């Protein structure tokens, strides 16, 4: 019977390696070694750790520093796991102290606060400067040709004649209501005849120029701003410049001059129609003595009072038309920008009239004065 040969065994003989020698050599070659023969972390038992190297791969100084940081954070009530690997743990929002803000950061914050606080004042100064620049540019063209008288007449017709109905209507009812209030107020003292003088004084110095200016701001100022704003966004002003026509001379200057000229006329008409309404209420309706009413009116209301009102109206007319021209000439942003410019023209014109009226009254009274005795 034949025998079946099995797998060949390990070699035998004087030169054969001992059993297990190959496995042991493989482990020794796989283990990291160091020149001084130390064993590294994770090495077989026959390999030593390098001196100065800890099993977690950190140097002794780094490990000691991390442990110190961890202890400090534990004292501050924060888990040691948030300490970090190095000095970064001292800057976190734990028990460690925060670094104070630098001087440059504080200075920037203070400067930004001052800028935000002064922003409205800066915008106001820029707006005033823009109006002054436009005024200078317009008046510089006054003595220079071409004059284009037709533009002046058209602007005067639009501002003056177009505003006449509303001015007369407001003037009539203003005089009527003032006369009615004056008759009842002075009637308690038996001085009904002074109602005409009081109404004339108020109309000539204050109400006639101020209310006329407010009417012009609501009608002429808004119309000028809308017209020039539409021309700006539709590039008609740019077309004038391309044809060598100065738009300030062509559009702005005629309106400024027309506003200065027609506003005193409207103010005078306001005063006349207002006194007519006051006469009607006091004499016809309330039955005040006509002779005394007219006599007191002549005694207390002088021509200088009417002149003061006319001087105010010249300034108010120029101011209202200037604001309307500025808002329309510098309009931007399409139809919305034109609407915003129109709104600003009305609001700024009305508010500027009331503010400027106080200062003009103070100056004119100190110059001309007014008669207060009967």
Description:
- Helix 6 packs antiparallel against helix 8 (247-285), helix 8 crosses helix 10 (303-329) and helix 10 (303-329) runs antiparallel to helix 11 (334-367).
- The chain has helices at 21-30, 60-75, 103-140, 149-161, 164-187, 195-233, 236-242, 247-285, 290-300, 303-329, 334-367.
- The chain starts with 20 loop residues before the first helix and ends in a 7-residue tail after the last helix.
- By secondary structure, it is an all-alpha fold.
- Mean pLDDT is 80; it is low at 1-7, 20-44, 46-53 and 77-96.
The number of helical segments is 11
The poorly predicted ranges are 1-7, 20-44, 46-53, 77-96
Helix content: 55-70%
Question: What shape does the CA trace take?
Answer: flat
Query: What is the chain-wise order of helices and strands?
Result: HHHHHHHHHHH
CA(first)-CA(last) distance: 166 Å
The radius of gyration computed from the alpha-carbon positions, rounded to a whole number of angstroms, is: 47 Å
Summarize model confidence as the mean pLDDT.
80
